[in-house]
Each structure stands twice: as C-alpha cells, then as structure tokens.
Amino acid sequence: MTQDYATNFWCGMDDLHGFSFYRKPIQNIEPCRAITIVDVYRYLVGHYAKPQTDTLRSLTSPSEAKKYKATHFDYCTFSGLFRKRNEKELIQHSGLLCLDFDHVGNPDRFKERLLKHDYFDTELMFTSPSGDGVKWIIPIDLKGWEHSRYFMAVANCIKSTGLPPVDKSGSDVARSCFLPYDPQAYINPKYSEYVKENLFRPILGECPF
Asked: Which pLDDT does position 202 carry in this prediction?
C-alpha cells in the first residue's frame, strides 16, 4: 500500500471516510484493502460474520472466546489507512474515532443513549462480537492534535456526561476493531444514498466477502 494508493482511494470520495480492512487472524497486519463506513455497514448487516459471531457468543470460557475472536474475525482500523497495522505506518488519518464500551448490559438501550449524546455525532454504531458491548464510531477533526491526546479528551468528556468509561485501547491510532454480524447496526442517515446502491464502491472491485 503506497501514498499513491491512498491518493487514488480518496479521489472522488471527499464525503466518505477511508480506512484499512484486514483479513483474519489478528496476527495478519497487512491490510487487504481500503474501505469506508458504508462498506463496514454492509458487512455488519450481511451474513459474512454470522457463523463466527454465533459461535463466539456460545462460548463460556473467556480465554477460549478471546482466542476464537482473534483467529476467526476480520477487522479494520477505523482511524486510518495503513501500510501495516502500526502507528508508524499510518498513511492518512480517517477523521474517525472508535469508542469501545464493554459490558453495557442492554446494548440496544445503550445505543439509544449514545444517539442522543449532546456533543458527538454518530457515523456508525454496532454491538460488539461478544454481544455485551457497543462500538461507537464518531467523526473528529484533529486540528493538529495527536490521536492519543484527542482520544483522551473525548474519553474525559464522555465520562463527564455520565456514560460508562471508554476502553482506553482506542488511544492507539492503529487499534483494531473486529467486525461481527449485527443486523441492527446503525449508520448515519447521510449515507442512505450510498447504502441504497447496495454495491461496494467501484474502487473495491468485487465484494471481497
């Protein structure tokens, strides 16, 4: 993946955020391709990850579940395009932040709270692979800030509004996010026209899933 690749990807896509997608297992740090919020939404509501999501949620051993998730789920790095999954290999920041909430009790009810948040808009939101957490993808403008510092500022703001603490691992710009099956995933209505196309962006070629 090169700078020219990033340039070509962004051409004609000013209204979408681009970031890297990776094939399982987690040990694979070479991105498969660049994707967008719309592509992830289609992946989530499709059946690509349904078998492994069902299996993961049936496991009772935490250690077994952790190992299974690491080897059976594709993932992405929401915060940017990378040559390799490493902060030093960042090509371009996506303008997105992935906030991870664990053990929220009722994910659907918690999602409603996030959608009504006073300070942050929602680009995408879905239930975590385990089934008891929520992934909240919000747009950000770094304005010259380091990703980690911006993340901590957002995390502190969220805490001050009475929400549960955010998983601090999101401070890593190269943080991976596993993609499960979630037919109830939420996507910002501004993407509705892209979703209606029901096709992956031409830059992606065939649907890889």
From this structure: 45
Indicate the pLDDT class of residue 94, thresholds 50, 70 and 90: very high
Report yes or no: 134 and 107 within 8 Å, Cβ to Cβ.
Answer: yes
pLDDT tens sequence across 129-166: 999 999 999 999 998 899 999 999 999 999 999 899 99
92-101 residues labelled b (16+ CB within 10 A) or e (exposed): bbbbbbbbbb
Q: Are 26 and 20 in contact (CB under 8 A)?
A: no
Residues in Cβ contact with 10 at an 8 Å cutoff, skipping those fewer than 6 apart: 18, 92
Rounded distance between C-alpha atoms, residue 200 and residue 160, angstroms: 39
In the chain, % helix, strand, coil (3-state, to 5) comes to 40, 20, 45
User: Hey, what's the torsion of the CAs at 120, 42, 204, 12, to 10 degrees?
Assistant: -40
C-alpha span between 103 and 76 (Å, rounded): 22
**Cα dihedral sign, 108-189-174-198:** positive
